[in-house]
Specification:
The protein is α+β, with helices and mostly antiparallel strands. It is 46% helix and 13% strand. Helix 1 crosses helix 5.
C-alpha cells in the first residue's frame, strides 16, 4: 500500500466521522508517514519504531485558552509501515485499524489521555 492509498483510507474514515465531533477539528491536519524516526521514538521514550501506529502533536482543545492563536496546526500522523505490520501480525483489517488509530489520536486532540482511554476500555 502506498502512502496515498492510506491517505485515502484516512479521508474515508474522517468523512464518516460524526459531524458533532468533526466540527471541532480545529487547526488540525492529518498526514501519513512511512515510519517514525528514531529521534521521535527516543523523545517519546519508546523501545522501538514498530510500536507507534499514530501520533498526535499539538495543543489539545481542553488546554487552549483565549490566547491560543497564530500557531502551526496540530498534527495527527499515521505510520503506514507500522500499521501494515501490526495488521499482518495480528490478522486485522487495515481500514479498521486506521479507523482505530485515527479515533485514538483524535481523542488526544480532545484532551483524553492514554490512561483515560485505558479506563474507558478503548484498548
Amino acid at each position: 500500500m502506498t502512502c496515498g492509498e492510506m491517505e485515502a483510507l484516512a479521508r474515508d474514515v474522517l468523512d464518516k466521522f460524526p459531524r458533532k465531533f468533526a466540527e471541532k477539528f480545529q487547526n488540525l491536519e492529518f498526514v501519513v508517514d512511512q515510519q517514525p524516526d528514531m529521534d521521535m521514538i527516543k523523545k517519546l521514550g519508546l523501545s522501538g519504531r514498530g510500536r507507534l501506529l499514530g501520533l498526535y502533536q499539538g495543543v489539545p482543545l481542553n488546554h487552549r485558552s483565549i490566547y491560543y492563536g497564530m500557531v502551526l496546526p496540530d498534527k495527527i500522523t499515521l505510520f503506514k509501515n507500522n500499521i501494515e505490520r501490526s495488521c499482518r501480525r495480528r490478522g486485522l483489517d487495515i481500514y479498521e485499524e486506521v479507523k482505530h488509530v485515527i479515533r485514538h489520536e483524535i481523542a488526544h486532540h480532545f484532551g483524553i489521555t492514554d490512561a483515560r482511554l485505558r479506563d474507558l476500555g478503548a484498548y
